[in-house]
Amino acid sequence: MEERIICQKCVYYYVTWQGGRAHGCKAYGFKSQTLPSVVVKNSSRLDCKFYQKKPNTK
Questions:
Q1: Superkingdom of the source (predicted)?
Q2: Burial 37-56 (b: 16+ CB within 10 A, else e)
Q3: Where are the alpha helices (DSSP H) in the chain?
């Protein structure tokens, strides 16, 4: 089973705090209004290839 992509749990995801472009992806190098995984899926019809789950901080 393939792991579900949740941007907030990815090492490349960050919050920009910019109005209208709150979500950022360091791997793809863009900021957007929607989650980066959704932008990638809509643009290329492929799942994000850079997704790397953050290590647990517990």
A1: Bacteria
A2: bebbeeeeeeebeebeeeee
A3: 36-44
The pLDDT tens digits for 1-57 are: 567 899 999 999 999 999 899 999 999 999 999 999 999 999 999 999 999 999 985
Residue 5 has which token pair? 């992509």
Task: State whether residue 28 is helix, strand or coil.
Answer: coil
User: In sequence order, what are the residues at sequence separation of 6 or more whose Cβ sits closer than 8 angstroms to the Cβ of residue 49?
Assistant: none
Side-chain half-sphere exposure of 54, counting CA atoms within 13 A: 12
Give the three-class secondary structure for 32: strand
* Cβ contacts of 35 within 8 Å, gap of 6 or more: 7, 23
The structural domains of the chain, with segments of one domain joined by +, span 11-44
